[in-house]
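Re: Re: token formats

Sure, here are both.
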Amino acid sequence: MEQESLPTEIILNNPRQSLGSVYLDWTPQPGSYVDFEGKTYTVLERRHRYQLKTNRYQLHKVALYVQTAQPPEERSFLRDRWVIGDMTCLYNARSELLRCAVNPSGPCKACGFYEERGE
């Protein structure tokens, strides 16, 4: 049996606001990118919403919590994935979702907390 597409609500994480709903033909995972109304967003979290129908809970819709994707100059390639920010910095989290602990909103360029990672 082929699963039909469910409505997916796109919710901007900061400031918290609903951007709208869309039907997707794939299942976005945290860390992946989704395009919506001409903008690219990074998926932070996926939540399922269920509804009680005929004495059973059925998946009703999906909610994606997203943040605006970082510009390409603020990303570095690490092994098999893109990470946010400058990987040469000691404080870089080496994550697709979080830049660093001391300056999470960035940018990395000219950051006063920059320390070269000694590896």
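Second one below.
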Amino acid sequence: MALLREDDRQHLINEFSVLTNPVKLVVFTQKLECQYCAETRMIAEEVAALSDKISLQVYDFEAHAEIAEQYGIDKIPATVIMRGGNDPKDYGIRLFGIPSGYEFSTLIEDIMMVSRGDSGLSAETKAWVAALKKPVHMQVFITPTCPYCPRAVILAHQLAMESDLIRSDMVEAIEFPHLANKYHVHGVPRTVINERVHIEGAAPERMLLGKLKEAVA
């Protein structure tokens, strides 16, 4: 049974008609003992089927452990959104957990952004990111029912697209409660930068930039 409704499918076909560069979805799943693994794979399959610009590669987390390690995948379900085609590029954009509810829009926006090849960030932010010397790891904790979470995730993914030194993870708090506890996630969205700096809510770009500067100081 399809997860996407027919009217949603038609809407996305129209949205994807403007895709330019190819996009590759890489999904890591597992047949046993993985909450929402099957659904995450189905979502990726149904979305990829809507455009010839979108390709999909599915790996088993255990059977393809070396590939998971190459992508830095340490939990599942996980989705990587990267440039595909003959010139592939992994921007460090990750979704850990099922991209459902409000977060389905994050998956779609990521696809559009990667295909466009432009993060859409301000000139000020792009200049700071271009001069970055230290690695940055951003984890944005979300729940599918949070309407403000996609904005926080997309901004983190925009930053990842701008620099090979930045990796940005969406982390679904309910699916990974041990991480939610570790990082004291009592409300979402909550963005954790380099393990020690955090910010609550869907912060505007300039405010998040200030936190990034603090994290690499």
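The first helix runs from residue 6 to 16. The first strand starts at residue 23 and ends at 29.
- S.
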